[in-house]
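In the current project phase, we have settled on a layout for protein records. One protein thus recorded is set out beneath this paragraph:
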Amino acid sequence: MSAAIEFKLTTPDELTDLLDAIEAFGEAQDLPVRTVMTLNLVLEELVTNAINYGSGPGGAVVNVWAELRDARVYGCVRDNGVAFNPLEHRAPNIEASIEDRPIGGLGLHIVREMAQNLDYQRVGAENVLKFQLSVQEG
């Protein structure tokens, strides 16, 4: 059996509504708190990047989808922004001191560490990033 949630955002202010919807989805599906927190963090990073850095000509439109199926969460973030493959973005040197590190990239690093089976495609005028999360007990 599967359960899914879909959400559309056009402004950063709607991010809180998305996170609330993910919390409600997790509660309705009896997901472990750790899984819900991971899903929230991954989606917050991806959506924030899409809205703040990749807005299309008419402003950002970000569609989020997540589905619980077979003890895994399958997620997808689609946006109308400029082409950007986050999987090609170089990982930050987390061993370097704060002073020596360039600004940015840590959020994408966190997403790559927390999510599995990341897949990016440019489909027409949209960025499409799919990912999976294991349902984590605890």
User: Anything to note?
Assistant: The first strand starts at residue 2 and ends at 9. Residues 33-53 form the longest helix (21 residues). The beta strands are 2-9, 62-69, 72-79, 116-123, 126-134. The chain has a mean pLDDT of 86.
